[in-house]
Here is the input.
Amino acid sequence: MHQSKDNNLGLLRLVENLENVINREENILSLISLISKKEYLRLRTSIIDTFEIEDDYPFSGEFGSEVELGDVSTALRETTLELYPETTPPHKKVTYEERQAWCKQVIETMDSAATYY
Here is the structure.
């Protein structure tokens, strides 16, 4: 379900939807659970879809042998807070171009973490 390029989305809505993607899988013990490449790619696709953009970022790295769900959630949250600190108004509208840049940075950070281990 991709939106029109001129449709801005609320920051709070995006953050809540991204958290729902992660929290669907997350409980306190699952953060240290290893995930398979298939699970990682599924999470990655869900995260990209949440940004409602038309871009695709193929995974081209060597998937690590000890990738944990916590690696994915940490990459997502750290990137989000770097771009949109807690002082950012929750009602801020995020443009299509901002969502593209945000998504790209999240995916690059996740992929880096997933290939490191």
In short: The first strand starts at residue 9 and ends at 10. The two ends are 33 Å apart (CA to CA). Residues 52 and 115 are 26 Å apart (CA to CA).
